[in-house]
């Protein structure tokens, strides 16, 4: 088989899907992106098609001939109980039909409150939220499908996203646009606690590696992440990238965010159970992936510099 001509199918055209497409194209793969509308800006060289992944026959047809399938879909929190199990079933069945590997982007919610203990692949699933318990059930389902020989699957978990294309994140739209205009940047929770942030290009590289190596299959992995520092120190690195000082506005509770209109009622209600991530140290230890595949995270100062430059380009375009 000519591995450089493999078809890789990505469901979802958010920051993860688009960044992953860019990474796979750089590796010489054929890339098909799928979203509901079939519209959107995508990396040059990729194919974009319309398709509803919640409909099994459509998902299977779009995966025909694929070597690797990636589930980078997303849904609003309030829709998770209805949407995510259906997407999981269709991803599993599509992989089973085609014989393709399946790679899934996952969250840290499965671990629940860790009370400052670093999260590793050995950390037990002990979710303290409804969303975390749902994600834990889904993760078990994916890995059980692998254990029974139905499919070959790997899961990759990331911390809070940041980087090019990332807007809806604790280190996204409330930080960089304000920083560029010398306005106070909004931070969440206790900003003096260590907090891991995942750089989007590192996430993309990690997912691409999970789809490439057989030894990745049948496991869940923590994707490459820089050593955790406090959000306050992150803001200082952003200052260095910009060349001017920043002021911070810290939101310490969901109620405060709701009262200020930062979060709407629906999002505030759904996110309340997850706010513990910003009131205790939130530390990811991704050394297992580093040791197994030789994949290292981008230095945080370099990643933040690139992110600042990307946001600057968006303001000029």
Describe this structure in words.
The chain is α/β, with parallel strands linked by helices. The chain has a domain of 183 residues: NAD(P)-binding Rossmann-like Domain (Rossmann fold, 3-Layer(aba) Sandwich), CATH 3.40.50. It is 39% helix and 17% strand. The protein has 11 helices and 13 strands. The chain has a 7-stranded parallel sheet with strand order 3-2-1-4-5-6-11, with helices on both faces. A two-stranded parallel sheet has the order 7-10. Helix 4 links the parallel strand 5 and strand 6. Helix 1 packs across helix 6, helix 3 packs parallel to helix 4 and helix 7 crosses helix 11. The longest helix has 19 residues. The radius of gyration is 19 Å and the shape is globular. The termini are far apart. Pfam families: Epimerase. InterPro entries: Epimerase_deHydtase, NAD(P)-bd_dom_sf. This is Epimerase.
Brief summary:
With 317 residues, the protein is α/β, with parallel strands linked by helices. Helix content is 39%, strand content 17%. Helix 1 (15-26) crosses helix 6 (200-212) and helix 2 crosses helix 3 (80-98).
Q: What's the order of the H and E elements?
A: EHEEHEHEHEEHEEEHEEHEHHHH
- The average pLDDT value, as a whole number, equals 96
Regarding CATH, which class of the domain at 3-159 and 199-224? Alpha Beta
Query: Which bin fits the share of residues in helices?
Result: 25-40%
Q: Radius of gyration in whole Å, from Cα?
A: 19 Å
- Second rung of CATH, namely the architecture of the domain at 3-159 and 199-224: 3-Layer(aba) Sandwich
């Amino acid at each position: 088989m000519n591995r450089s001509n493999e078809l890789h199918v990505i469901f979802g055209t958010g920051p993860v899907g688009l960044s992953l497409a860019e990474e796979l194209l750089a590796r010489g793969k054929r890339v098909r992106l799928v979203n509901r509308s079939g519209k959107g800006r995508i990396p040059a060289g990729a194919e974009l098609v319309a398709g509803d992944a919640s409909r099994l026959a459509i998902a299977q047809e779009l995966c025909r001939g694929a070597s690797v399938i990636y589930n980078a879909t997303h849904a609003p929190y309030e829709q998770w109980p209805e949407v995510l199990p259906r997407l999981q079933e269709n991803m599993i069945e599509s992989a089973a039909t085609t014989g393709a590997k399946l790679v899934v982007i996952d969250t840290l919610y499965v671990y629940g409150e860790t009370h400052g203990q670093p999260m590793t692949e050995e950390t037990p699933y002990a979710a303290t939220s409804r969303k975390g318990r749902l994600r834990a059930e889904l993760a078990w389902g994916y890995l059980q499908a692998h254990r029974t020989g139905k499919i070959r699957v790997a899961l990759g978990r990331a911390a809070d996203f940041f980087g090019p294309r990332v807007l809806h994140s604790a280190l996204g739209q409330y930080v960089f646009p304000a920083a560029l205009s010398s306005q106070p940047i909004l931070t969440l929770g206790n900003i003096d606690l260590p907090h891991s942030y995942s750089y989007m290009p590192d996430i993309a590289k990690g997912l691409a590696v999970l789809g490439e190596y057989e030894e990745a299959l049948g496991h869940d992995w923590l994707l490459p992440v820089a050593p955790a520092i406090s959000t306050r120190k992150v803001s200082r690195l952003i200052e260095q990238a910009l060349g001017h000082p920043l002021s911070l506005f810290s939101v310490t509770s969901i109620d405060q965010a709701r009262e200020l209109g930062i979060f709407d009622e629906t999002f505030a209600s759904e996110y309340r159970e997850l706010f513990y991530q910003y009131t205790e140290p939130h530390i990811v230890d991704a050394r297992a992936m580093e040791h197994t595949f030789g994949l290292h995270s981008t230095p945080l100062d370099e990643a933040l510099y690139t992110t600042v430059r990307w946001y600057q380009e968006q303001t000029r375009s």
